[in-house]
Structures are given as structure tokens and as C-alpha cells.
Amino acid sequence: MQLGIPHDEVQAFACPVTFTVDVIGGKWKSLILFHLMSGTRRFNELRRLMPEVTQRMLTLQLREMEVDQIIHRKVYLEVPPKVEYSLAPLGQTLVPLITTMREWGAAHEATVIEYRKAAQVERQAEAQTSLERN
Amino acid sequence: MQLGIPHDEVQAFACPVTFTVDVIGGKWKSLILFHLMSGTRRFNELRRLMPEVTQRMLTLQLREMEVDQIIHRKVYLEVPPKVEYSLAPLGQTLVPLITTMREWGAAHEATVIEYRKAAQVERQAEAQTSLERN
DNA sequence: CGGGATCCTGCCAGATACTG
DNA sequence: CAGTATCTGGCAGGATCCCG
């Protein structure tokens, strides 16, 4: 596999870390995976679990993960339509990763939020003094 | 902390997983962290390790991680200038996560690439038949 | 050497409306 | 119910030039 010059649309990746980011780094993917870890979910069920995600974005991210066979999409041919999403075998292998991410976030969220606020205050003070100089 | 309606620019997050993505989900952040895991790096050293990243993007992502105190930035007041980046204590806590990501990528990259190629071929075939119908 | 400042562009995400 | 289709604006990210 040649690096840097993919011969078609399917990319080559210079580093495994980059590749993993490409697979689960989508804005909502890991959150979707998290919700699928506790069981099969229907489309609107996922919408209710993630109200901030628009329908369109949810669909797109689900499609990408379906292509990567991270998740499985089962369509029931009935009226009204019914579609169930679940973790595919490859998706199961991501469970430890998602779990680690969740634990890290829970443990450090408050701290980082404080860091960000501090940096924000600093920037404002800086803007103030540069105003006073003029 | 109110959800959904942050009272200033510093966001609140509905879920720890989402938050973690926000911290390390930047396009290059986890790759930068990976390179800092093996030791302190200078700016141009990082550029050489990641030629695909533009200077601007490298700077921006480093700044964000500095604000979050994931990494530490040490400036030497000398000519020519010298800046060293290293993992801050909070960044150290991310090492297991990055390692897991790297291992997952290494183990499954080839498989997923194949899945993507297959899906691509499928889409092309589909486009072909829909052409033939007209 | 290690950036900052600017300008520019594409594509991504949101909103809305429609459908099998 | 579980999606597509279309338009649209914003901003992520590239290219380029400048600077201490």
C-alpha cells in the first residue's frame, strides 16, 4: 500500500492512530456507539437519546459506520417501517475504547472546563490591556 | 451546570464520551499526543513527524491542547527561538487511551479498508444499473 | 526557529420540506 | 417511522506573507 498517494478514493493512512480517529472520530460516532453498547436501538430511539444531533447528521454517521461494518443495520419490511441498529462484531471490539473514553471524560471534565474558563479570562484581560494602551 | 444552554462560551457537555471527543477528537490531536508520548518535541520536529499537517493547523491544535493543559509548552528565550512541547500531567492520563487507539487501528485497518472498497464498488454498480434503466 | 495575521475556499452542518 | 432532497451560511482548514 503506497502512502500519501492513494490510487483511488479509499485512503491510505500514515498511522494507526490517525486511522482510528477516522473511524470513530466523527463528531457523534462514539456517542452513538456508546448508546448501542447497551443494546439494539431503533432510529427514533437514538434521536431521543441524542436530541442535539440532527436527523440528517444521525443518518450520515450511521451510514458511515455501517460501511465500515462497525454497526449493523437491520430493516424490517413492514408498515410502519422499522430499522434496528446494533453493534457489529467489529464494533464490539471498540467497546473497551469507548468505555475508556467515557471514564476519562467523567474523571476530568470538570478540571478541563475550569482550565478553559481560566484561559478565557486571561484572553479577556489581555484584550483589555491592549485596549488601554490605545 | 445547565445542559444545552451554556451561559457563556465555555460549553457544557451532555455526555462524558462527547466531552472526550471534544478534547482529543481534533483531526490531529491524538497523533500529536502519540508523538509526545515518546518524549519532548520541538515545533519543527513535530512538523517533520507529521508532514501532512500544515503549520497553521499544527499551531492551532497545539494551542487548544495547551489551554486544556493536556500538553505543556516551554519557551526558551534565546536566538534562534526554541519551543518544546511535552505531555502535561493531564496528558499523561491519556496515554492508555492513545495506546488503545493505536492498537485497534493497527489490528483492524486492513479489514476496514476492504469494507470501504467493497461498499464503493457496490455504489458504482448501483449507479450503473440506474443509468441503464434510463 | 516558531510562529502570527490575512485572505480565500470548500464542504459540512443546520433548517426545512417531502416520501415510501 | 425512517428516512431522502435541496438550499444555505459558517467556519474549518489551506496558502501565502510577514515578523521577533
UniProtKB/TrEMBL annotation, chains A, B:
Keywords: DNA-binding, Transcription, Transcription regulation. InterPro entries: HTH_HxlR, WH-like_DNA-bd_sf, WH_DNA-bd_sf. Residues 15-113 form the HTH hxlR-type domain. SUPFAM superfamilies: Winged helix' DNA-binding domain. This is Winged helix-turn-helix transcriptional regulator. It comes from Massilia suwonensis.
